[in-house]
């Protein structure tokens, strides 16, 4: 039971990481390799504000989210939209966006190192909390609950609002969406900005229980990629399920075999999904 609950809590953390990239790649078609750096940026902001003024990271999240939304909107409009306009195929856009965001990730790491070049951590709600006779850290449980809340709100917005419906249509076909009057560039910018805001919110929550430094963003990006490929590109429900599966598998490997093999287990899942179900757990085979 301890392994299952720990795995689910870890999966909740991974879901936070993957939500943002899922929107950016699934709708805006931008493979953002700087996604992990935005997560670390949110964590660094939470650390700074907590250390300076003892303000809760949950309150910091409410400030960081709109700032990240605006920043990502500007990045998409200034840097990425020209790439979208000149790309003749989806493959061409993916290559260009990978190169552009790969460079952006290095720039963000450099900025964060100049701000705080050391490991950063702080103690927030690091209190024991008992579930079914087992003790877990309260901050992990809160992060898990917020992951479910954010995922649920995103799902409701995507499936029960007109902008959400338009965004889902763009994720299926940009050409057909344009033909029925959907403003595809605007919806793509909205998806990219919203994804960046969600990723940064995840960073503020993760900072409460993980020690970070400016260079660890690439690991979070890799985890997010595995989750969105496993769950199905653009599928929030699939991202939650895939994140929980990854958390469970990594926890079992760490507890029962060797903690050093968790990344190998994640990579094995990634390869198996690519080989046997490339459309993801909830994706449909292309007709």
General description of the model:
The N and C termini lie far apart (42 Å). The radius of gyration is 18 Å and the shape is globular. The protein has 287 residues and is an all-alpha fold. It has helices at residues 2-26, 35-53, 57-86, 90-115, 138-160, 162-172, 174-179, 184-206, 217-231, 236-256, 262-276; strands at 128-131, 134-137.
Structural class: mainly alpha
Residue share in β-strands: under 5%
Distance between the termini: 42 Å
Strand order of the largest sheet: 1-2
Report Rg.
18 Å
What is the makeup of the main sheet? 2 strands, antiparallel
Low-confidence stretches: none
Run of helices and strands: HHHHEEHHHHHHH
Total E-strand runs:
2
Please state the average pLDDT score: 85
Q: What's the shape?
A: globular
Summarize, please:
This protein is mostly helical and 287 residues long. The chain has eleven helices and two strands; from the N terminus they run ααααββααααααα. The protein has helices spanning 2-26, 35-53, 57-86, 90-115, 138-160, 162-172, 174-179, 184-206, 217-231, 236-256, 262-276, and strands at residues 128-131, 134-137.
